[in-house]
Design a protein that fits this description.
Helix content: under 10%
Strand content: over 45%
Low-confidence stretches: 1-34, 40-51
Largest sheet: 6 strands, mixed
Mean pLDDT: 84
Radius of gyration: 22 Å
């Protein structure tokens, strides 16, 4: 098999490993039943009337999925297969999404186990259901378990699994997502492997996946442009596009209205300006003036928020990373004659000031700002440490390929400690 296909599979495994815990413990069998989320009665769900209001899901780092009570992600086993995991905020435990007390969580006998397929799976919570968007794979490493892309839905406790939508081979999901509690919306691309083993991407499409009708609809195709779903208003989807075909890069935010099924551009900019959507707000940084401004994508109101850095000591580059509560988190790089400095700040949208964030996620390769996975009330689920572990992927020819896998430790902390750079992490038990 060609090296390029090995490389494609390496990226897929590395992607799956981003959500794995690194602290080893004995299985917490007595806590499995109490830690798993409760399934909602079907008749109660059927009686619930959902408003046609959109919400942005998976807004933070990592490919996991947050509900109001916990967090879903994966633990990668030594052979590249994965166990679906659930972190319960109340009990501070992380357990397989499996209700069997005697299960060893190692193979197909576990209801939370999934074979390695090479393409990766993205979890998201849609209403009272946990959904897996499975990219599938057709590479020769995963030949024995090769599958076309599909969408699987289940109750929040992992029961009642159902493959609700089958998709064309090569369709790739991209996180994050938008949901209206019965459907979800995503940017997808069609991929193919050419004769040289290279992955070829087609145009990106905005697609609605209806879990009730068990079908999907292509809403819009983005011609000659990169497209990234970044937010939503109550009834429209906000997509950032990047177009490099007109002699220079042009970035824009386009709004797709679900009611009128129309697309319109609401703002555009060119480098070196930096723009990003969070929820229904668009933020723009102009390095020439150090000015930070915002556009409310619902009302169309534009305001100047303040400055990042100063004209006397300007940042060389700025990148928006996240938004938590009323604080915009950004990375700032200052390049000197011989050195460069990277810092992370939180810009308070209320008092218009920036405070440096110094907490880090430590791993064996490099140091990054503290990874925030989810927020709930006055608390955060974070990852303060990570390590590299090796997994051995079996190919169809009987050989194995060792691949590095990043395994992250999970813990909880208060938002107050996060903003004040206090590493007061709460202890958490994990069964894997």
């Amino acid at each position: 098999m060609g090296k390029k296909k090995w490389k494609a599979s390496f990226l897929a495994v590395l992607f799956l490993a981003l959500c794995c815990a690194c602290t080893a413990h004995e299985p917490i069998q007595e806590e499995v039943s109490s830690a798993l989320p409760e399934s909602q009665p079907q008749q109660e769900e059927a009686q619930k009337v959902f408003e046609s209001s959109l919400s942005f899901v998976n807004p933070h780092s990592g490919p996991g999925a947050a509900s109001s009570d916990g967090y879903y992600d994966y633990h990668t086993l030594p052979d590249g297969s994965v166990i679906l995991m659930y972190t319960d905020y109340a009990t501070k435990t992380r357990v397989p999404l499996c209700s069997s007390p005697s299960c060893v969580h190692q193979d197909e006998t576990c209801s939370a186990w999934y074979a390695y397929t090479g393409g990766g799976m993205l979890p998201l919570v849609v209403g009272q259901r946990l959904v897996l968007a499975v990219n599938g794979s057709n590479d020769s490493i995963a030949q024995e378990n090769a599958t076309e892309p599909y969408i699987e839905a289940m109750a929040l406790d992992g029961t009642g699994k159902e493959k609700v939508i089958s998709l064309p081979d090569g369709m790739m999901f991209e996180s994050p997502f938008v949901t209206d509690d019965t459907s979800f919306y995503a940017i997808c691309s069609q991929t193919q492997i050419d004769e040289g083993g290279q992955t070829v991407l087609s145009q990106r499409q905005l697609i609605k996946f209806d879990l009730e009708q068990k079908n999907y609809t292509v809403l819009h195709t983005f011609e000659n442009a990169g497209a990234y779903l970044e937010g939503c208003t109550a009834d429209s989807l906000l997509v950032r596009t990047v177009d490099s075909t007109s002699g220079g890069e042009k970035d824009a935010v386009v709004q797709y209205s679900l009611s009128s099924q129309s697309v319109k551009e609401i703002v555009s900019w060119k480098p070196p300006c930096i723009g990003r959507v969070f929820s229904d707000q668009f933020y723009l940084f102009d390095p020439a003036s150090c000015e930070l401004s915002a556009l409310d994508c619902t009302s169309g109101t534009k305001i100047v928020l303040g400055t990042l850095g100063s004209l006397e000591a300007p940042f060389t580059a700025v990148q928006f990373k996240d938004k938590i509560d009323d604080r915009l988190i950004y990375e700032a790089i200052t390049v000197g004659e011989t050195t460069s400095v990277t810092q992370y700040f939180a810009f308070d949208l209320t008092n218009k000031t920036s405070v440096e964030l110094t907490l880090k996620t430590q791993d064996t390769m490099h140091e990054t700002p503290l990874i925030v996975l989810a927020e709930f009330g006055d608390n955060l689920l974070v990852s303060p440490a990570a390590r590299v572990e090796m997994v051995n992927i079996s190919a169809s020819d009987g050989t194995t390929l060792p691949m590095p896998s990043l395994s992250y430790q999970y813990t909880l902390m208060t938002k107050a400690d996060y903003w004040n750079n206090q590493p007061n992490y709460m202890s958490m038990d994990t069964a894997m």
